[in-house]
Specification:
The chain is mainly alpha-helical. It is built from six helices and no strands. The protein starts with a helix and ends with a helix.
Length: about 110
Protein backbone atom coordinates (compact mmCIF):
# COMPACT_ATOMS: atom_id res chain seq x y z
CA UNK A 1 0.00 0.00 0.00
CA UNK A 2 2.88 2.38 0.79
CA UNK A 3 4.36 1.62 -2.62
CA UNK A 4 1.19 2.69 -4.43
CA UNK A 5 0.86 5.87 -2.36
CA UNK A 6 4.48 6.82 -3.03
CA UNK A 7 4.09 6.21 -6.77
CA UNK A 8 0.99 8.40 -6.77
CA UNK A 9 2.82 11.20 -4.93
CA UNK A 10 5.84 10.90 -7.21
CA UNK A 11 3.76 11.23 -10.37
CA UNK A 12 1.10 13.70 -9.25
CA UNK A 13 2.66 16.16 -6.81
CA UNK A 14 4.00 19.36 -8.34
CA UNK A 15 6.55 20.08 -5.62
CA UNK A 16 10.00 18.68 -6.49
CA UNK A 17 10.98 18.34 -2.83
CA UNK A 18 7.96 16.13 -2.18
CA UNK A 19 8.69 14.13 -5.32
CA UNK A 20 12.31 13.70 -4.21
CA UNK A 21 11.23 12.31 -0.85
CA UNK A 22 8.78 9.92 -2.54
CA UNK A 23 11.50 8.73 -4.94
CA UNK A 24 13.97 8.18 -2.12
CA UNK A 25 11.35 6.32 -0.07
CA UNK A 26 10.61 4.01 -3.00
CA UNK A 27 14.27 3.04 -3.02
CA UNK A 28 14.18 2.39 0.71
CA UNK A 29 11.28 -0.07 0.50
CA UNK A 30 13.65 -2.92 -0.41
CA UNK A 31 11.33 -4.15 -3.12
CA UNK A 32 12.22 -6.61 -5.81
CA UNK A 33 12.75 -5.17 -9.26
CA UNK A 34 9.27 -3.80 -9.85
CA UNK A 35 8.47 -2.58 -13.36
CA UNK A 36 5.80 -0.14 -12.12
CA UNK A 37 8.13 1.45 -9.55
CA UNK A 38 11.01 1.72 -12.02
CA UNK A 39 8.78 3.20 -14.70
CA UNK A 40 7.35 5.73 -12.23
CA UNK A 41 10.85 6.77 -11.15
CA UNK A 42 11.97 7.02 -14.77
CA UNK A 43 8.90 9.00 -15.84
CA UNK A 44 9.44 11.46 -13.02
CA UNK A 45 12.83 12.27 -14.57
CA UNK A 46 11.63 12.27 -18.17
CA UNK A 47 8.80 14.68 -17.29
CA UNK A 48 11.07 17.27 -15.69
CA UNK A 49 11.64 20.58 -17.42
CA UNK A 50 14.66 20.06 -19.66
CA UNK A 51 15.96 23.60 -19.18
CA UNK A 52 15.59 23.80 -15.40
CA UNK A 53 15.47 20.28 -13.96
CA UNK A 54 15.57 19.77 -10.20
CA UNK A 55 18.96 18.43 -9.10
CA UNK A 56 17.73 17.21 -5.71
CA UNK A 57 14.85 15.28 -7.24
CA UNK A 58 17.15 13.71 -9.82
CA UNK A 59 19.70 12.73 -7.16
CA UNK A 60 17.00 11.15 -4.97
CA UNK A 61 15.79 9.17 -7.98
CA UNK A 62 19.34 8.04 -8.70
CA UNK A 63 19.69 6.83 -5.12
CA UNK A 64 16.45 4.87 -5.52
CA UNK A 65 17.72 3.29 -8.75
CA UNK A 66 20.97 2.42 -7.00
CA UNK A 67 19.23 0.78 -4.02
CA UNK A 68 16.91 -1.22 -6.26
CA UNK A 69 19.81 -2.32 -8.47
CA UNK A 70 21.88 -3.37 -5.46
CA UNK A 71 19.01 -5.37 -4.04
CA UNK A 72 18.30 -7.14 -7.32
CA UNK A 73 21.70 -7.61 -8.92
CA UNK A 74 21.00 -4.93 -11.53
CA UNK A 75 18.08 -3.42 -13.41
CA UNK A 76 16.64 -4.59 -16.71
CA UNK A 77 13.89 -1.97 -17.19
CA UNK A 78 14.62 0.05 -20.39
CA UNK A 79 12.99 3.23 -19.09
CA UNK A 80 15.65 3.42 -16.37
CA UNK A 81 18.37 3.63 -19.02
CA UNK A 82 16.48 6.43 -20.80
CA UNK A 83 16.23 8.34 -17.52
CA UNK A 84 19.92 7.81 -16.76
CA UNK A 85 20.89 9.06 -20.22
CA UNK A 86 18.63 12.11 -19.77
CA UNK A 87 20.32 12.94 -16.47
CA UNK A 88 23.80 12.19 -17.78
CA UNK A 89 23.40 14.48 -20.77
CA UNK A 90 20.96 16.96 -19.24
CA UNK A 91 21.18 20.33 -17.58
CA UNK A 92 22.05 18.93 -14.14
CA UNK A 93 24.97 19.82 -11.92
CA UNK A 94 28.16 17.81 -12.20
CA UNK A 95 27.52 15.82 -9.00
CA UNK A 96 24.19 14.54 -10.33
CA UNK A 97 25.63 13.74 -13.77
CA UNK A 98 28.56 11.86 -12.21
CA UNK A 99 26.20 9.82 -10.03
CA UNK A 100 24.15 8.92 -13.13
CA UNK A 101 27.32 7.74 -14.88
CA UNK A 102 28.34 5.70 -11.85
CA UNK A 103 24.95 3.99 -11.74
CA UNK A 104 24.94 3.38 -15.50
CA UNK A 105 28.38 1.78 -15.25
CA UNK A 106 27.39 -0.44 -12.33
CA UNK A 107 24.14 -1.56 -13.96
CA UNK A 108 25.92 -2.36 -17.23
CA UNK A 109 28.58 -4.33 -15.32
CA UNK A 110 25.87 -6.36 -13.57
CA UNK A 111 23.99 -7.17 -16.82
Amino acid sequence: QARDSLINILLSDNEPMVQAEAAYALGELNIEEDEQVLQALSNSILQQDILTPDNNMAFATLLAFEKIAQGNGGIQEPSVFRALVRIRSGNYNSTVRKKAKQIMDSIIDNN
